[in-house]
Amino acid sequence: MNWDDLRLLLDVSRHPRLADVAARTGLDATTISRRLRRLETDLGLELFERTPKGHLLTPAGQAVADKAEGLEHSAAEIASLSESEGPLATGRVRLGVTEGLGSLLLAPAMARFAVQAPHVGLDIIAVSGFVSVPKREADMSIMLTRPKAGRLKVRKLSDYVLHLYAHPDYLARTRAVTAVADLAEHDLIGYVDDLIYSSQLRYHEDIAPGLTPRFCSPSIVAQWQMAREGAGIAVLPHFIAGNDPQLVSVLPEAVSLQRSFWLAVHEDVHATSRVRAVGDFLDELFADSAARLTGAA
């Protein structure tokens, strides 16, 4: 029995479609399928059910995966012994983060991180959605809700606020907005409803029942650009739009939404020097950016 085949079993258990595993591992789907069959032959067990949705674990496969996860955890603990005790943070960390935060707050701070941790590489996975720490898609992830399951170390990074924003030209050519009720007569900008990946992004429901955006995108950066070009009124984080000279705040006293950022780190790597270096950097960055995040003077 080959340990690499067991690790491949874990990859497939977390990502049932072989095409997804192939993209992650660099192996082609034929090789992955052959190695899984080899593992089944070595163990004398049927580990997967081949379905249109991908390779799904059989009860025997789940039992093997549970044991393999224990081995993976032990291997990570052994590897972290030298890293947690070593004087120098080295290696690479994969950080999952929301698109707006990654693009507008973290990416501009990379020069600062390079000085603080010169031997640590950082992959910022800034997407319209979340990468999964429990599934080992990332070592750590900044999330909009506190995760309640998985072998994770979780802490709150910061609150942040959102307001309504629009270009002055849009406001000049449309009906005046003097109250929340007026928003029903305006072109609103927001998320594609069935692509919303967190309930925390359903902003319009919190503002007033029945508000429906006319222009939608799963990308907060795209929504920001729509508002900057005068397409309508968008709900945007203060750290994105608060200092944008092309936008003005709409109903700032009446509409102010608060959300939070949570940092989730996999237990297997939370004590390593490289992950601690990224965590320390994030703590400092969020502390220094408090006013930008919350709009406080």
UniProtKB/TrEMBL annotation:
Keywords: DNA-binding, Transcription, Transcription regulation. Signal peptide: none annotated. One of its GO terms (biological process) is DNA-templated transcription. It comes from the Bacteria. One of its GO terms (molecular function) is DNA-binding transcription factor activity. Residues 1-58 form the HTH lysR-type domain. Belongs to the LysR transcriptional regulatory family. This is LysR family transcriptional regulator. It comes from Hyphomonas jannaschiana VP2.
